[in-house]
Every structure is written in C-alpha cells, then in structure tokens.
Automatic annotation (TrEMBL):
UniProt domain HAMP: residue ranges: 373-428
The UniProt record lists the keyword Metal-binding: no
A Gene Ontology molecular function term of the record: protein histidine kinase activity
Region (Disordered): 1-20
Biological process terms in GO annotation: phosphorelay signal transduction system
Enzyme Commission number(s) of this protein: 2.7.13.3
SMART domains assigned: HAMP (SM00304)
InterPro entries: dCache_1, HAMP_dom, Sensor-like_sf, TCS_sensor_his_kinase
Organism whose genome encodes this protein: Adonisia turfae CCMR0082
Protein name: histidine kinase
Spans traversing the lipid bilayer: 29-51, 353-376
Subcellular compartments: Cell membrane
GO CC terms, sorted: plasma membrane
UniProt catalytic activity: ATP + protein L-histidine = ADP + protein N-phospho-L-histidine
Length: 471
C-alpha cells in the first residue's frame, strides 16, 4: 500500500476576490458638501429674491414719486396760466358789454395800464408782463410804453388768433428787454358783422416756472422740465422751463430763438428728451409706448411712466400732457429719476446679506469638516479592527477609544468585540477539527469506504472554512 500524503493546510488569508481598494468618494467631502450646498443655495436664492423684490418695490416707489411730482408741476402750471385765461375772458366781457371802448386807443391804453398794475399787486398774477391790443386798422394800445413802430398785425400772436378765430396760445419767444421767455395769450375780437376787429394779447413771463422746478426735490439726482410738443410748422420740442441756470434761447439770424430740449446743456434733460423724441413720433403723441399703440389708444392714454438707459443706468420717466386740460396748451411735463437713487440702499442690503451668507457658509463648512472627522475616526478604527480579525491579529484595545464615545459607535464597537470573539472561537474550532481529521486519516491507512468517508469529511471541513474566510 502506498503512503498517503496529508492534505496541505491552507492558512487563513485575504480573499483574492476582495482586493483592498480605497473609497471612490470620501465621507470627509460628502458630508461637508451635503451641509454647505443647501446653505449656499438658500443664501443665493434668498439674496436673489430679496433683490428682485426690492427692485420691484423701488420701481413702484419711483413711479409713484415721478407721478406725484409731475402732477404737482401740472397743478402749478395750470394755476400759473389760468390767470391769463381769466384776464382774457374779462377783457372779452368788458368789450361785449361796451364798458370798454376798443376804438379809443388812449382810453384803452389807460385801462390796460391800470389792469396790469392791479395784476402786479396779486401774487397769483404778478407774472403777467404786458397787456396790449392791435386792430385791423393797424392801431394799437399797450400797458407798457413802447416806441417801436412795427406793424403788430404781422406778429405771430396776432396771426395765430386771426387764423384760429378763438383764444389761443401763441408761440413762446424771448423778450429782448428782459431776456426772459414769454408766452402770449391771444384773444380775437369780432365786430357785429362777425369779422375780425382786433386781437388782445397777454404776455406771461415763464421764468417763475424754472424757479419753481429748482425748488422741487426730485430724488437724489432726478430732474423735472417742461418742453413744447413738436409742431409741423414751428416747434421741435423747445424747452420751456428747466431746474438749471441755462439760457433757453440762442441767437439765430439776428433774433433770439428758443432751444430744443435736445440741445440742453443738462445731460439728463438732453438724454431724456432724446429718448422721448425718438420713441414718441416726434412728441406728437406723448406716450412712452406710442409706436405700438393705435391712434385711438394714444388719444385715450396721454400720461405714462416709462424707462430708458443712460450710460447703461436705468432711468424712470413720467410724462404728463397738458393739451387735454382746460388750459389746452401743448406742453409736456417730464420727470426723470435715475433708478440708482433708490436702488443704492437695496444694493447695500443685498451686499450685506451676501457677506453674512459667505461668513455663514465658511462656518458651516468648518463645522461640517469637524463633523466629518468626528464620524470618520471611529469608522477608520472599525475598518482596522476588521482587517485585524481577518489577519488573526485582532487586539481588543484597538476599539478602546471607540467604546468610550457617547454615541452609537460605542455600541458598534461592542458588537465588533463580540463578533471578533465568536470568529476567533469558530476559526480555532475549525482548525482543531481539520487537524483531528488529518490525524485520523494518517492513522487509518486503509482503502475502501472508510478512506473515502474521511476524504469527504475533510474536504467538506476545508470548504466550510474557505467559505467562512471569504465573508
């Protein structure tokens, strides 16, 4: 009989199917990311919504301010011009009741002088500069001494009333004596036959309107001004009043002509006028969005709020039209305010919120890193203990620090200790069984069923041990 060699005993080692590999993504980074990412997103969304809400509130506030300022200016202009309308109605009533004889120029001159003196003593009518009259025969009367010998019938104020055959506002002109802008109210007078007898004129100084605009508070750097609507015959959007000390006329062809708002020395006035002129069909239809409106819509929508950019900065504009008021004058009241005047405070709040958010994010990141390290340390200890068990080198002191923790990891460390004891005990028991079987196999050097049974039992024991070691 041949001598049987003992089955080799395979030492318990590392499974070839479970090679040691490092983690693809570490908890050290996942945990801070999960903590910090929502914080950053929350701060960003909060800042964005705060900015949008603040911006909407600012736009609404600025629109309310521009509307209120424009309405206040409108009220002042109407009050300013109504005096001349009342005076013109008084003159017509005096003539129609034959109290005033317009054929006697000397008497008419005295009447006009006395009327002007009365107006000068009243604050609401002190801006009436002159009252005058000219008839179809070329004769004239005036409340102020006038030695000029020109034909009044050729003057614009006379021709305007002659053409309209009703009370009308003549064009604004520059008074050579005072160098002030003057507006004339022209009132035609008909004879009994219904033909034109003559025309009364009432001159109103406009410098007080500019003074009024100077005293207005239109935000931090806003502006308000008045300009004339574009007319096919004469007007190109001339300035009537501005809050700046600038000449509103220029000398051309030997006469002083009013300047267009687009020629103003004030950049804000000039740029705003450019925008309005370019977007409102030459100011014939004073509405910010008139290019997209029908004629019927334009006639029903004369006042409007709109916006435009100067050097990339948003400006809000309010336009009020006076042509459909009782005074029936084709002027535009324009109020413009840079949005930055009111957005500065909102931007400051947003910057502070973002700064606080950055600080919170940094603190959250540090806390998340500390928390990650707090969790990773016991996990590393548990991993080391598992490797020690696999290598038959487990030392219970490896998990001593973990067992002292006040959290769930201490429970897990106790479980590892118990598991290590069980594993070592089972490994020792299996090893003892294998040795016993090897011994018995060597003792029974026989063939047949006994030898086969021992081989099967030994092979089964080794398979059990191998499967257990691969877990």
């Amino acid at each position: 009989m041949s001598t049987l060699e003992p089955f080799p005993f395979e030492p318990y080692g590392e499974s070839p199917t479970r090679a040691s590999q490092g983690p693809a993504i570490s908890i050290r980074w996942i945990l801070p990311l999960l903590v910090v990412a929502p914080v950053i997103i929350g701060i960003a969304l909060t800042g964005w919504f705060a900015y949008r809400s603040g911006r909407s509130a600012v736009e609404e506030t600025v629109n309310q301010i521009t509307t209120e300022v424009a309405n206040n200016i409108q009220t002042e202009v109407i009050r300013y011009l109504e005096v001349s309308i009342v005076a013109s109605k008084m003159l017509v009533a005096e003539v129609n009741s034959e109290v005033l004889n317009i054929q006697d120029m000397a008497t008419l001159t005295n009447y006009l002088e006395e009327t002007r003196e009365v107006f000068q003593t009243t604050q609401t009518s002190e801006n009436i500069a002159n009252l005058f009259y000219a008839n179809e025969a070329g004769k004239h009367a005036t409340s102020q001494p006038d030695s000029t010998s020109f034909d009044r019938r050729e003057r614009p104020w006379y021709k305007a009333a002659e053409k309209a055959r009703k009370a009308i506002w003549a064009e604004v002109y520059n008074d050579k004596k005072t160098s002030e802008l003057v507006l004339t109210r022209s009132i035609p007078i008909d004879n009994q036959a219904g033909n034109l007898e003559g025309v009364f004129g009432i001159d109103i100084k406009l410098n007080s309107l500019s003074n009024f605009l100077k005293e207005l508070n239109v935000g931090k750097s806003g502006q308000a001004f008045i300009l004339e609507m574009v007319d096919d015959q004469q007007s190109t959007g001339e300035l009537i009043a501005t809050p700046e000390d600038e000449d509103l006329f220029v000398k051309q062809s030997g006469r002083n002509n009013t300047i267009s708002a687009k020629e103003s020395t004030n950049k804000l006035v000039r740029e705003t006028a450019d925008y309005i002129l370019d977007n409102n069909n030459g100011l014939r239809h004073p509405n910010c969005n008139s290019n997209s409106l029908s004629n019927e819509e334009i006639n029903n929508l004369r006042n409007d709020n709109c916006e435009f950019n100067i050097d990339g900065k948003k400006h809000l504009v309010r336009v009020n039209y006076l042509g459909d008021k009782d005074i029936n004058i084709k002027w535009l009241i324009v109020v413009t305010i840079p949005q930055q005047d009111y957005m500065g405070a909102i931007n400051g709040i947003v910057r502070k919120a973002l700064l606080i958010g950055v600080v919170i994010t940094v603190l959250a990141s540090l806390l998340a890193l500390v928390g990650a390290m707090y969790i990773i340390r016991p996990i590393k200890k548990l991993n080391q203990a598992a490797d020690d068990i696999k290598q038959h080198q487990f030392d219970p002191q490896t998990l001593a620090d973990v067992r002292q923790r006040p959290d769930e990891f201490s429970i897990l460390a106790d479980v590892f200790d118990d598991m290590a004891t069980v594993v070592v005990s089972r490994e020792q028991s299996l090893a003892d069984q294998v040795k016993q079987l090897e011994t018995e196999k060597l003792q029974y050097r026989s063939t047949g069923d006994k030898r086969y049974s021992l081989d099967v039992a030994l092979r089964h024991a080794k398979q059990v041990r191998s499967r257990y070691s691969q877990r």
